[in-house]
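step 4 of 6: structure.
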Amino acid sequence: MAMRGGFPAQGAGGRLARALLVFPVGMLVVFFVVPLIMMFVVSFYRNLPGAGWEPAFTLENYVRAFSRGLYRDRLVYTLEISALNAVLCLLIGYPFTYYLVRLASPFWRKVGLTLSISTLWLTYVVRSYAWSVLLSATSGVGQLLMWLGLVDRPTGYTPGPVATVVGLVYVFLPFMILSLYGSLRAIDPSMEEASMNLGARPWRTFLHVVLPLSLPGAAAGAVMVFLLTMGNYVVPSILGQPAQWTMPVIITNQVMNESNVPFGAAMSVILLAVLGLLAYATGRLVGKARVNPYAGSRVAQGGEGA
Amino acid sequence: MSGRGLRYRDPVVWSVRAAFWIVLAFLGVPLLILAAVSFHPGRFMTFPPQGFSLRWYETLFTNSQWTDAIRNSLVVAFASALLATAMALILALVLDRYPVRFGAVFRQLGMLPLFLPPVIMGVAYVSFFYAIGFSGRIENLIIAHAVFNAPFPLMLISAGLGKVGKELEESAMNLGARPGVVLRTVTLPLIRADVFAGALLAFILSLNEYIVAFLVAGFTVVTLPIELFASLRYSYSPVIAAASVVFILGTAVLVAVADRMAGGLWD
C-alpha cells in the first residue's frame, strides 16, 4: 500500500526521515543478516576441542552430520514427531474450535477463545514443567491411577515418549485453535442452515459444507504446528529422554555442552534448509498468505486480520 | 448452548460438546495444579498439597539466586522492548508516510525474524558474537531479543497507521503545521495505544523467551526462564512452582493490557 501524501516527500523533512531509517535497517542488517551469514561461514570452520574454532573451509561438519546414523535418525525422528503433533493438534483442535465458533453468545465465544489461547504467551519452560509435575509419580497422574486402584504403585510418565507428545500437543494446540478459529468463523452459519433446510443431516452438512470451507485454515494450522515443533527445544528436553530429543536439542547440546559451534552451525544450516524446503512446498500447496509459521499468535493479525 | 447450525440432539453434537470441555480442562488443569503445588509447605512437590504455606513465594522474592534472575529478566525485557519499539516505530512511520526506495524489502526484513526458528537464531548469535570477540554480555541478549521481537510492534504500529489514515495529517498540514509538529501533535498521539501495545508484547515475549537467551548468554546472564529450567533439572522444590505462578499471573495481566490497548489482539 504505497499511498502518497501526508508528509512532503522531498525537502529536509523527507531526507531526515529517510536518514532515520539507517537505525532500524542497520540493526537488522548487523544483528540479523550478518549473524546468519556468520553461522553459515562458521559451519565450514574446523572445531578445536576446548579452544573454540579455527577458520577453515572444511566439509567435515556436514559429512559428520550426514554420515553418522545418530544425526540422521534424529532428523527423521524430528520430522516424525512434528508430523504426529500436527495431526494430533488438528484432531483435537478441530471439534473444539468448531464448537467454540458456533457458541451463540459472543461473550462466551470471546471467553472461550481467550481461555483456550491464553497459554500461548507463557514460556515453554513453565508449560512443560506443568506437565512434568502432572505426569510425575508423586504429584500427578501416577497417584490418581493408584487412588483409582488401577495400579499398585504410583508410576511416573516423565520423562518419556508419552510426556513428550502430551507436552507438544499442550504447547502447540493454541496455535492450531487460533488458525482454525479464523477460517471456521468466516463460514456463514446460514450456509449450514440452508443445507439442513434442504434435508441434510448435521453429519452430511458438516462433511459437504463446513469441512471443505475450513480446509485452508486446517492445513495452515497443521503446517504451522509442524514447523514450530521442528524448531522447539524446550519441550523435548524437559519432557523427553535422549530417545525423544529432536534436532534443536542436539544442536543446543553441541553448542553449549560440547562447545562445538561449527558442528552446531552445520546442523542448524541443515535444519534451516529442511524447514525452508518444507515451508516452501506446503506454502505452494496451502496458499502462501495463510502459512505464517513463526507468526504464532500473530496469524490472526498478519495473515487474516483487519 | 449448542450453536445455530446444530439443533439436533445428535450423538455427534453431544460428543463434540464433551470434547470441548475436555480440551478446555486439558489446557487449564496443568496450570491450576501448578498453582496448588506452589502452596505446599514441604520441601518436595506433592499433589494434593499437604497444608498451605507462602514460604516458597517468600523464598522466590528473597533468595538472591531468584531475585537476580528476576532482575536480569526485567532489565533485558525492558531494554529490548524499548529498542524493538524504537526500531519498529521508525520503520513503520517512515515506510508508511514517505516514498522509500526498497521500502517493501526493508519491511520484509523487519518481519523476517518471526519466521526463523529461535534455536537457529541463537546459534547464529553464538557464531557472530564469538567471532567478534564479544560473548556472553547482557547487551548481546538485549540486542538479540530486540531484533527477534521487533516484528510484533512493527505489525501493531503498521496496523495502527493504516487505521488512522492520512486525512487528519493532511488537514493539519493544510492549516500550516510543519511536518515535525504534525508528527508530534497528530500522528503520534493517534497511534500511541498501538505503540504501547507493541512495546508490551515485545516485553512479554522477551520475559518468556528461553532458547535464544540461553544460547546468547546462558552461562553469564541468568534470566528467569533459564533459572527455572536449570533448577527443575536438579531439584523438585515447590519454589519452581511458585516462580511459575508469578510468571503465569504476570503474563496474563500484561497480555490483557496489551489486548485492551490494541483493541483486541485476536479478533
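step 5 of 6: annotate
 - DSSP finds 14 helices and two strands in chain A.
 - Residues 1-6, 288-306 of chain A have pLDDT under 50 and may be disordered.
step 6 of 6: archive
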